[in-house]
């Protein structure tokens, strides 16, 4: 029976809570030992975790630490995962970027200074509008926002952020912590909230907790429901491509090419998996585009162009209904952004566009150019490569284009030859 994500997150939080106690060393040793024993056919149901004999245990902590160990053991965390929780690497690593939004300059200054002392890079905004401008250029790892602000309040700001960056950890700061406020924030997409006055010791733990949750969600996507998801994705992608002979196999070819680029660029195995899922699904939003627009033989009118340009947004909304696909939804939403900020749907600049979306953009453009479409014939490899060169730094990421030209393009030519 598969374990719930909730149980794993709670276990990771317990591990972080034990970080400063004398149980941490023994906890790690016990779980490393358990990982080694998992190769045998007999799996222990409980672990006797040794305590570091050099550190005394307060009487009040004995019972809670024992319960904590059982939670971690039952949740099935590996020794590596426990270690990352205890050392803090499961959460927001030192040097990560925090966007702090609060119209009260004094409160904002105190929180920002506290976080900087912890090693975080803090971007400050005095309004939600300013915060949106910042995250379109400098994407943060987590957002902290006051709830009560003029013009655009924290809840509305949260909804907008979650539309642009699905799944981005968002923590609300409120001066009036009530159940109703918490529920309203959660409905808007916030993952957590903290009451004023903000505790300097509490805030980093909240940040770590939300990053740990996101990390475990990614593992859940990869390790558990991957097979079922992939079957559904392949079927839906095939249905979209099969709507016209000119697009047959397009999504699969783009997924293969994007994966080759990402592998050369050194992306992790998990990121590679997520990118290929996104590539398989990048055109799913075209389900909502009329066939007369999709397969029109000639330049599209202004209104039809608007209709066609809705497909990344529609696709992101479809995928965003599944929480485990938040990262995939973000890539799909942004694969038509331009690095000069003139793309769609959000007009993101440069590195504000997720790297995997920038890779997908190049792979998608290459396959589109080298395939016949109702409105034009296929282009030759040399002509398509020149289009990528011309668009580098304007539409496409220069590094991604350079990697494609130097390391991927020669192999494509060799296979065609």
Relevant terms:
mainly alpha, five-stranded parallel β-sheet, 19 helices, 56% helix
How does this structure look, described?
The chain is mainly alpha-helical. The chain has helices spanning 5-17, 24-37, 59-75, 79-87, 105-117, 128-135, 154-164, 179-187, 202-223, 226-241, 250-264, 269-281, 291-294, 302-308, 311-320, 326-333, 355-369, 381-391, 398-416, and strands at 97-101, 121-125, 142-146, 170-174, 192-195. The protein has a 5-stranded parallel beta sheet with strand order 2-1-3-4-5, sandwiched between helices.
Radius of gyration: 24 Å
**Spatial arrangement of strands, main beta sheet:** 2-1-3-4-5
Low-pLDDT runs:
1-25, 31-36, 38-77, 80-93
Broad structural category: mainly alpha
Write down the overall mean pLDDT: 76
Précis, in short:
With 417 residues, the chain is mainly alpha-helical.
Q: What's the layout of helices and strands?
A:
Layout: H1 5-17, H2 24-37, H3 59-75, H4 79-87, E1 97-101, H5 105-117, E2 121-125, H6 128-135, E3 142-146, H7 154-164, E4 170-174, H8 179-187, E5 192-195, H9 202-223, H10 226-241, H11 250-264, H12 269-281, H13 291-294, H14 302-308, H15 311-320, H16 326-333, H17 355-369, H18 381-391, H19 398-416
């Amino acid at each position: 029976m598969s374990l719930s994500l909730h149980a794993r997150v709670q276990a990771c939080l317990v591990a972080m809570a034990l970080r400063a106690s004398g149980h941490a060393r023994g906890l790690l040793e016990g779980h490393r030992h358990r990982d080694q024993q998992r190769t045998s056919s007999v799996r222990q149901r409980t672990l006797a975790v040794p305590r570091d004999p050099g550190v005394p245990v307060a009487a009040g902590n004995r019972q809670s630490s024992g319960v904590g160990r059982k939670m971690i053991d039952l949740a099935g965390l590996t020794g590596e995962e426990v270690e990352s929780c205890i050392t803090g690497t499961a959460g927001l690593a030192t040097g990560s970027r925090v966007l702090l939004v609060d119209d009260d300059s004094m409160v904002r200054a105190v929180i920002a200074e506290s976080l900087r002392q912890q090693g975080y890079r803090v971007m400050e905004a005095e309004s939600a509008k300013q915060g949106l401008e910042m995250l379109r250029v400098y994407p943060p790892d987590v957002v902290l926002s006051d709830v009560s602000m003029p013009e655009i309040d924290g809840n509305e700001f949260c909804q907008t952020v979650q539309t642009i960056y699905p799944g981005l950890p968002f923590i609300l700061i409120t001066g009036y912590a009530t159940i109703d406020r918490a529920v309203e924030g959660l409905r808007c997409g916030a993952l957590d909230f903290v009451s004023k006055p903000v505790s300097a010791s509490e805030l980093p733990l909240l940040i770590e907790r939300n990053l740990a949750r996101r990390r475990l969600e990614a593992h859940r996507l990869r390790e558990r429901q991957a097979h079922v998801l992939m079957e559904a994705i392949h079927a839906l992608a095939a249905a979209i491509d099969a709507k016209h002979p000119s697009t047959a196999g397009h999504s699969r070819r783009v997924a293969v090419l994007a994966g080759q680029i990402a592998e050369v660029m050194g992306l992790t195995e998990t990121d590679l998996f997520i990118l290929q899922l996104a590539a398989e699904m990048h055109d799913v939003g075209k389900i909502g585009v009329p066939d007369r627009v999709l397969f029109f033989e000639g330049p599209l009118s202004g209104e039809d162009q608007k209709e066609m340009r809705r497909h990344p947004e529609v696709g992101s909304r479809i995928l965003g209904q599944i929480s485990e696909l938040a990262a995939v939804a973000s890539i799909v939403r942004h694969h038509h952004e331009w690095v000069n900020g003139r793309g769609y749907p959000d007009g993101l600049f440069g590195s504000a566009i997720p790297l995997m979306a920038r890779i997908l953009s190049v792979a998608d453009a290459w396959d589109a150019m080298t395939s016949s479409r109702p409105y034009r014939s296929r282009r030759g490899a040399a002509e398509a490569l020149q289009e990528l060169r011309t668009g580098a730094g304007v539409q496409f990421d220069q590094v991604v284009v350079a990697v494609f030209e130097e390391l991927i393009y020669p192999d494509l030519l060799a296979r065609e030859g």
